[in-house]
Specification:
265 residues; alpha/beta; Rossmann fold; two-stranded antiparallel sheet; 9 helices; 9 strands
Length: 265
């Protein structure tokens, strides 16, 4: 079985690639990235390193950023607004209804269309079914555990509407029709929070190289290189997730913790 993964260079997609390689073998996995006029194109250089680490081919697709003309998204180059700092996505969503300001119009729809086209092409090339693996997690999809321990789904809690379960299922149906049932979608993290998927990534046979990842939405240039700002919502969420992961590993597997504690920052 072949597998196609959208690889941005961030922690979620890097873990997705690690799981895909672990499940299907590097020889059967393909990764794709997208340049679309964002304020953080540096992430694609990190994605190249992650793909090389796993020894999988990496293709970058350029999407004409003019398609977003008129958008008020703060994540796009040329935006008059700055990326919000100092608050996590949970805090931002608690203060407003609807999409967050960094939502790029239909971004995952565009990405998924290209990934699906690649998958269908592989079906034709190898005459076998192909899996598209997605990296959406519970913080994206709206899954959560309530105060009674019950599993709940509230898509109003999702920061990005194109990461919700409804969106994924709708696109899955479209691709099923288009590929005549030969392309399948997998979302292994849809009920897992970011800290849980990072914990999974550190437990894989070939550990996810989180030190190579780049998730920042507003990078800063320091000492001759681009680095994560540490203060945008994405950076704050990553820090919270990584700290929680390492706390869990420290209590459950001290030996592993000694190997990965350098990831705490």
């Amino acid at each position: 079985m072949k597998c196609v993964v959208s690889l941005s260079g961030g922690r979620d997609s890097a873990t997705c690639l690690g799981v895909a390689v672990d499940k299907y073998g590097a020889e059967n996995v393909y990764a794709m990235g997208f340049e679309y006029g964002s304020k953080h194109p540096q992430e694609l250089e990190h994605a190249k390193k992650i793909a090389a680490y796993y020894n999988v081919p990496y293709q970058i697709v350029t999407i004409n950023p003019e398609i977003f003309n008129g958008s008020t998204c703060t994540l796009l180059q040329g935006s008059e607004k700055e990326v919000q700092k100092g608050k996590t996505y949970t805090e931002i969503l608690a203060e407003k209804e609807g999409k967050v300001d960094t939502y790029v119009p239909f971004r995952n729809g565009l990405f998924s269309a290209y990934v699906a086209a690649k998958a269908e092409s592989l079906v034709q090339q190898f005459d076998e079914d192909v899996v598209v693996m997605l990296g959406q997690h519970a913080d994206d999809s709206g899954y959560y555990i309530d105060e009674h321990g019950n599993e709940m789904l509230d898509e109003s809690k999702a920061a990005y509407p194109d990461c919700t379960v409804s969106f994924v299922k709708a696109f899955e149906k479209v691709v099923e029709v288009s590929s005549v049932g030969r392309v399948h979608y997998e979302a292994p993290f849809v009920k897992m929070h970011k800290w849980e998927l990072i914990k999974m990534g550190l437990g894989l046979k070939k550990r996810v190289p989180y030190e190579l990842c780049f998730s920042c939405y507003d990078p800063v240039y320091e000492n001759g290189e681009w680095v994560e700002c540490k203060n945008c919502a994405t950076c704050l969420d990553v820090k919270q997730a990584m700290d929680k992961t390492l706390d869990k590993i420290q209590s459950e597997n001290p030996e592993l913790y000694e190997e990965v504690k350098y990831l705490r920052n």
